[in-house]
Amino acid sequence: MNKKVSRYFAKLLVCILSVFVVSLPIIKLTESSCHRLYIFSYQEEPEFTDSLRLNTICSDQLTGDGWLIFEGENYIAPKRVQIFNPEDIIQAEILTAHAGNYSAKLMIYKEGKTFFSDPVVFNITSEVPTFEVILPSGNELYKVKKPEVFVSIKSSQPLIEASIVFNNNKISMECITEKEWNYSGILKLEDGQNKVLIEGINNHHVKGIAAFEILYQKPKYTKRIPVIGYHDIGLNGNDWMVTPQEFENHLQYLTKNGYYFCTPKEVLMFSNNWIRLPENSVLITFDDACSGVFTYALPLLKKYNAKATLFVVNSFLETKGYLTWEELDAINSSNVFTLGSHSYALHGWVDYSMIFGGGMTPKLFHLHEETWDEYLIRVKGDLLKSKEELELRYGKEINFFAYPFGAYDKETIKRVKETGFSGAFTFNRSEHYIYRWSNCYAFDRIPVLKGTKAINLFD
Fold first, then answer.
1. Which among 37, 85, 231, 306 has most CB atoms closer than 10 A?
2. Helix (H, G, I), strand (E, B), or coil: what is residue 297?
3. 274, 207: one domain
4. Are residues 212 and 245 in the same domain?
C-alpha cells in the first residue's frame, strides 16, 4: 500500500513541476474515464518564427500512438507522435508552415476510446526574407552583349524556393544551400535596360523580393564589309607606302568606332550567308610581303589588338624591300595575320605595245606567244607552287589568293579555283564592299594610299 501511494505522489509531483517550473498554460483533456492528457507550449501566448515545436505530456497510463491536429489560416498536415511512458515529454517539430494563426490539439486512441486535449492557440510569424544580389559586374551596371545572364543571391533566411521573374515568366533558380541560390541561363532581354526581379519564399511561405537591372546591348549585324588594302608601311616611299603614323591613325579610328577585325574566312562565310558579323566589321589586307609589314604593321596591329591578312609573293622574299623568311615566320606565329598567296612569280607585266600593237598584259593572263596548254601549265604551276610552299612550311592551308595588280578575268578565276583556293581578292571593281552573295572569287578592296585620312578610309 505504501509503495502504491509513493508511486502516485511521484507521478503527481512530475505533473506539478512540469506545469510550474516552465510556467506553462495547461489545457485539460476532454476526459473519458479518469485519464488525463495535456498539451503545452513554451510561452503564455506562443509565437514561432523559425519552426513550430509543441510538447505533450500524458498522465496515468495513457500511452500509445497519437496525432497533433492543427486548424488555422492554412493547412498543416497532422503530425504523428508516440508516447511510450506516461511521464515522457514528447516534442513534435514542424519546420515549414505558413505564417498565420493556428490552434493544435492532441488526439490519442486507446482501448476503443478517443481522447482529445483542449486546443492550444499559437501564431507563426516570419520576417520578410531579404537578399544580397551578386552580379558579375559587382556594383556596376550589369551589361551584356548576349542574352545570357548569371546572378546569385544570399538570403537572410533559409528558402524553400527562389525564382527569376522576367516578362511575366518565372524561372527557378538553382539551390546551392538553403541561403544561396544561382541562376545561369538565357533571358529574352529587350535591347536597352531591363529590370529583373528575384522572388524567394522562406520556410513559412513568406515572399521576399529583390530587383536588379541589366543593360542588354543587342548586337547589330552588318549588311556589308569593307576590305581595305595596303601594300607597305614606311617612310619616304611611293604612293603605295603609308607612313607608320597614318597607319596608327587608321587603327585608332577603327578601334575607337568599335570595328571588328575579321578574317578572310569569316568574310567568305558571311558572303555565303553562313554567319552574321558585327555591324562594324572590316578586313585589313597587305599585298606583296613588303618589309614594312614586319617593321611597322605587326607591332601596331598587336598594339590595337587588330588582325590582318598578308598576301605573299614567294619570289619576292629575301630580296631588297621585302620580308625575309625568318620575318615571315614571326608574322605567321604572331596570330595577328592570316597568310594568303599573291602568286609565286606572276606579279608582273608583259609589254606587247611594240610587238602586237597591244598594251601591258599581266603575267597571270594567257600570253600571246604561248599555247593554251603552255598557259595552263605555267599559271597553274605557279599558283600551286606558291600555295604548297607556304602550306608545307607552316603546316596550314592557304585558302585565299589576291590577283596581282587586282587584274583577273574568267580564265584566271578558273585557274584559282582549280588550284584549290576558296576565294580571291581584287582591286579593280567598283563595289568596294562585300555583300551577301558577292562573288567570292572577285572580292573587291579599297586601296589605301599615302595621305589617306582615317575618316576617308572607306571612300
1. 37
2. helix
3. no
4. no
- At position 63, the amino acid (one-letter code) is T
153 in Cβ contact with 133 (< 8 Å) = yes
The three cell numbers of residue 348 are 608582273
Burial 264-292 (b: 16+ CB within 10 A, else e): bebbbbbbeeeeebeeebbbbbbbbbbbb
Torsion angle defined by CA atoms of residues 360, 363, 366 and 370, in that order, rounded to the nearest 10 degrees: 100
Clarify whether residues 92 and 19 are in a common domain.
yes
How far apart (Å, rounded) are the C-alpha atoms in residues 306 and 449?
20
Instruction: List the domain range (segments joined by +) for residue 373.
Output: 224-456
Burial of 234-259, coded b for 16+ CB within 10 Å and e otherwise, reads: beebeebbbbbebbbbbbeebeeeeb
Report the candidate in 127, 124, 128, 185 with the shortest Cα–Cα distance to residue 152.
Answer: 185
Q: How far apart are CA 456 and CA 454, in angstroms?
A: 5
What sign does the CA torsion over 298, 299, 301, 302 have?
Answer: positive
Do 193 and 289 lie in a common domain? Answer: no
- Shared-domain flag, residues 193 and 295: no
The residues facing 163 across adjacent strands are 172, 199
The domain boundary residue, chosen from 193, 216, 239: 216
- 190: three-class secondary structure by DSSP: coil
pTM (predicted TM-score): 0.62
CATH of the domain at 70: 2.60.40.10
Q: Which three cell numbers stand for residue 356?
A: 602586237
Let me know: does 93 contact 77? Beta carbons within 8 Å.
no
Task: Specify the CATH number for the domain of residue 236.
Answer: 3.20.20.370
- Look at the chain and report how many structural domains it folds into: 3
From first to last of its 459 residues, the chain has per-residue pLDDT tens of 444 444 444 444 334 333 333 333 333 333 333 344 555 555 555 555 555 566 666 655 566 778 888 898 888 888 888 776 666 666 666 667 788 888 888 888 777 778 787 787 877 777 889 999 999 999 889 999 889 999 999 999 899 999 999 998 999 999 999 999 999 999 999 999 999 999 999 988 889 999 999 999 888 899 999 999 999 999 887 888 999 999 999 999 999 999 999 999 999 999 999 999 999 999 999 999 999 999 999 999 999 999 999 999 999 999 999 999 999 999 999 999 999 999 999 998 887 766 656 678 899 999 888 999 999 999 999 999 999 999 999 999 999 999 999 999 999 999 999 999 999 999 876 778 999 999 999 999 999 999 999 999 888
CA 94 – CA 356 distance, rounded (Å): 106
How far apart are alpha carbons 393 and 107 in whole angstroms? Answer: 90
- Type and span of the H or E element at 29: strand 29-30
Residues 6 or more apart whose CB falls under 8 angstroms from that of 291 comprise 232, 234, 321, 322, 323, 327
